[in-house]
Amino acid sequence: MRSLWLLLLMPLLAFVPHKYYVSTSDMYYKPENKQLQLVVRVFTDDFSLALSNYTKDKISLDPDNKSEKETATTISSYFKDHFVIYGLPEESTFSFVGWEYKQDQTHLYASFDNVPELTVLEWSNAFLMATFPEQKNIVTFSISTTKKSFLHSKEVNFAQYNF
Questions:
Q1: Is residue 99 domain-resident?
Q2: Residues 121, 161: contact at Cβ < 8 Å?
Q3: What is the per-residue pLDDT across 97-121, written as a single tens digit (0 to 9) for each?
Q4: How many Å apart are CA 20 and CA 152, to the nearest integer?
């Protein structure tokens, strides 16, 4: 009798909402331009909450709530602290290019300039992990005709690519 009840309840349990936390990032290495370009895509509501926790101030990515310059400064700081590239020389500089809304996602654009020829590239992507411990970040790294994906989580948040 118990197994009959379990069989009847199983289909209902399949419709219980389950929130998942995933961001995707594209990283392009352009040695001819001495540049590493980054595009990070996050869900806007999750990113707003992460920024609020980061600044200890209520952040809404609604353009009417704060000045665009102030929001850009906050996002740039968050980006530098949470997407870290290791081993770049001092002359390499970080540039936050901007962001845009695409339906329920926010796309963030940044680059590292004056990047010399690399033999190894190491990075970590901790976007949203302080706010959502179950967060997963997928980074796709591209150079010329090579493309490789890496999965970052709270447990494993380091990746390396050898040229």
A1: yes
A2: yes
A3: 999 988 889 999 999 999 999 999 9
A4: 14
Helices 44-55 and 68-82: angle between axes, nearest 10 degrees: 90
* pLDDT for 70: 83
pTM: predicted TM-score of the whole model, two decimal places: 0.84
For residue 21, pLDDT beyond 60: yes
Domain-located, residue 134:
yes
pLDDT of 155 over the 80 cut: yes
In 10 A of CB 84, how many CB atoms? 15
Nearest to 127 by CA among 43, 6, 37, 3: 43
Tell me, yes or no, whether 75 lies in a domain. yes
Q: What is the DSSP string of 6-73?
A: HHHHHHHHTTS-----EEEEEEEEEGGGTEEEEEEEEEHHHHHHHHHHHHTS-----TTTS-HHHHHH
- Does any domain span residue 3? no
Q: Which domain holds residue 71?
A: 25-162
Q: How confident is the model at residue 18 (pLDDT cuts 50, 70, 90)?
A: very low
**Residue 92 DSSP SS3:** coil
- Number of domains forming the structure of the chain: 1
